[in-house]
Amino acid sequence: MDNKLLEILVCPLCKGPLVYRKPQQELICRGDRLAFPIKDGIPVMLESDARELDPTEEIPK
C-alpha cells in the first residue's frame, strides 16, 4: 500500500483517519468501527463492502 495514498485517504462516512492493517489488508476507521478491504492493492472505500468490527476486536494504533 502506497504511503502517500494512505496519507490522503479518509473514512468515506465520517471523514476521519484510517489505520492500515497490513496482515488483513484492511483500512480501519476507529470512529465508525468499520474495516474497508484492500483488493489487489486498491482500497475499496464503499460502506456496502466494509465489515463491522466485532466489539471485542482490538484496533491497532
**What kind of sheet is the major sheet?**
5 strands, antiparallel
CATH topology: N-terminal domain of TfIIb
Helix-strand category: mainly beta
Helix coverage percent: under 10%
Q: Give the number of domains.
A: 1
Q: Strand-and-helix sequence, N→C?
A: HEEEEE
CATH level 1 name = Mainly Beta
Inertia-based shape: globular
Oligomeric state: single chain
Distance between the termini: 17 Å
CATH architectural type: Single Sheet
Rg calculated over all Cα atoms: 11 Å
Total beta strands: 5
What is the mean pLDDT?
93
The percentage of residues in β strands lies in 25-35%
Which residues sit in consecutive blocks of at least 5 with pLDDT less than 50?
none
Helix count from the secondary structure assignment: 1
What does this protein look like?
The protein has one helix spanning 3-8, and strands at 18-21, 26-29, 34-39, 42-43, 51-52. With 61 residues, the chain is mainly beta. The model has no long low-confidence stretch (mean pLDDT 93). Strands 1, 2, 3, 4 and 5 form a five-stranded antiparallel β-sheet that branches. It contains one helix and five strands; from the N terminus they run H-E-E-E-E-E. The chain starts with a helix and ends in a 9-residue tail after the last strand.
